[in-house]
Write a structure and sequence with these properties.
heterodimer, A: alpha/beta, 4-stranded antiparallel sheet, 8 helices, about 30% helix, about 25% strand, globular, disordered N terminus, B: mainly alpha, 2 domains, two-stranded antiparallel sheet, about 80% helix, binds adenosine-5'-triphosphate, binds magnesium ion
Chain lengths: ~250, ~450
Amino acid sequence: MSTTTDPEGHRRSELSTAERQTRDWLLRAENVSKAFGQTQVLTEASLDLYPEEAVAIMGPSGSGKSTLLHAVAGIIAADEGKVILRRPDDGGIDDITTLSDAKRSAFRLHRFGFVFQQGMLIPELTAVENVALPLMLLGTGMAAAVLQANAELHRLGLLGLGDRRIGQLSGGQAQRVAIARALVTDPTIIFADEPTGSLDSRTADEVLDELLASNDGADRALVIVTHDERVAARCDRTVRLLDGRIEATR
Amino acid sequence: MNTSAALLLIRPRGTPALLTRLQLLASGVTTLLTFGVTMLAIAFWNTPTDEVGYTVLAVSLVGLLIVPLVTLGSATARLAARSRDDRLATLRLLGATSARVRRIAVAEVTVIAALGVTIGTALSAALPFLLSLLTVYGKPLQAAELWLPWWLTAAIPPALIAVAATSGMLGLRQVMLSPLGVRTRQDAPRLSWLRLVAAVAVLGIAVLVVQTASEGWGAVVVVIVLAVAVLAVMAVLGLAGPFMVSRAARWRARRTSDPARLIAARGVIDDPRASWREVSALALATFVLIPAGSMLGYLDTIQSSASREIMTTDQLLMFADARTMVIALTAVSFLVVACQIAITQTAAVIERRELYVVLDRIGMPTAELNRSRRMRVTMPANVAVIGSAIAAGALAFWVVLMALVTAPLFVVAIVIVLAVGLLLIQLGVVSTNPVLERVLSAPSRGE
Ligand SMILES: Nc1ncnc2c1ncn2[C@@H]1O[C@H](COP(=O)(O)OP(=O)(O)OP(=O)(O)O)[C@@H](O)[C@H]1O
Ligand SMILES: [Mg+2]
């Protein structure tokens, strides 16, 4: 798989959306609905995710972007609809909407990576321990996990910051540590909820570069919830939500 | 901004409301137990005998239980005040002066405490009847004799409310000083090893003094010397405790591949003082239980042997009462500790809800989260029990040795009681599992 550099100097994959979508989807959400009490927050939202693509989710505040992300990622249980994933090894299919809380939790650990607006790192742990944590949860020993985490931090240009506490990192650095934490388990999908929302535009660009680059050549998709048209423009397509319904997909 | 808007903001909803109920419960329990302890102490004090043992019993009962009781009341008020920090920050943003915000919050905490104290005081009217089930000096206690003098009854509630108000104020100051709380803290505090050196030195001196104390000094002097030695050791336990706890946690954090344990250990390392405070009542109970229980075992052996003639009837009666007191003391301490842990852990989950939400999202199983929370408490609890057992064993070496030889079953019983205490602590944490579940079930709302 080759990559090129676009006019702005960003690395992008050569595949077009059409080409990509001839391949098998990684995750398929079908008619997912969710209500909180009386309010219908999400109505019959459907979304397919293909390898190597970056999908932006946009929409006004309160339109259900985070809820869609949470439902697709199995953080919350959808009321209706299904979310199915293809297993990488045997091509079999799992429906996460039918799983128990504990099973969904295991699913997130094994298959998904998450990046949130404020990094949401564990303040008690050092940067490298934060990155090593998902591996340790998967059963990797401390020493091996730290080694792998350091390699990941190195790739993201954070070598030497591993022993810092989270409070000693800048916003951009913390966000990169969060990306390292999301990538370290080699997940199928990375979900990012306003990952650059609290960064200045230059740092936001750099962090976005890292996120997009993580997709290239990997059997992985990236979902970014954002309010920023510039972020959306750099993704392969944009899903627009209005009042809990998917209005348009570019 | 008018007061009603301020009150609207500060009135707790959702999970913090749970904390309000807990504060109510805790201040009620504190009041009830304070009245009970005072009544029992006065009953011991008024025993119609010259046996000084009863005076000692009365004084030590008050001395040993007032500390944990006041801790419980103040810890709760402190946490209740702190748990309002989100809303306090909002109020500040809306333009309320910080003095005003503080006044409102402290007033609220005080009102809740006052309510709890009032309920506790009302319920304490039943105490004389309950306590009359106990026997002191060979006779059942008389309910009529247990009523406290009116001035004492009148003094206890305001004192307890004052403790709550002061603690609430202190808890708030912590928030005000660092509005960002944990997030701004960068490095774990390093406690000096001098704490340990000082503690060992004091313990050494105390052991020396206790060993050399002889009847030639006169009974009063001996009692005072012993009391001072015991108090000094209790005081340095509080000094060495946080250091030991932090050391033990560092040791654990270094050699674990278990993420639940790593997070727990790091939490302890970040705030060893608070971790110790949470279990300090347990340390105190252990420190008292070991020599007292050994002594009782030893005396029990004498009592059931031919040499019982060396003891007067008064002494025999007193030992029976001392046993009652040790049991009561242990039971109440454990209860207080478990209660306090349930409350601090509830507050901890609310305060650290973001942490738990993110761990849940990245796929840490809820059972593991709960295990981590449990370890965060049992780690210092183990240190407290083992540490004060060592201190008590050194101080009362001969008594414990004698008990081991003459009444090994008593020593076994002590160990079992301590194990039960540790188990109760775990139960205290487990009782807050639903709070975590609530926090996780509505993560985006955080309430
Ligand atoms: N746990 C919850 N309980 C009740 N209502 C909720 C809950 N979470 C979200 N909502 C409601 O669902 C709607 C959609 O919320 P959501 O967080 O998905 O919006 P969003 O598009 O991500 O908005 P923003 O851009 O502000 O992040 C909102 O009206 C919100 O109030
Ligand atoms: Mg959102």
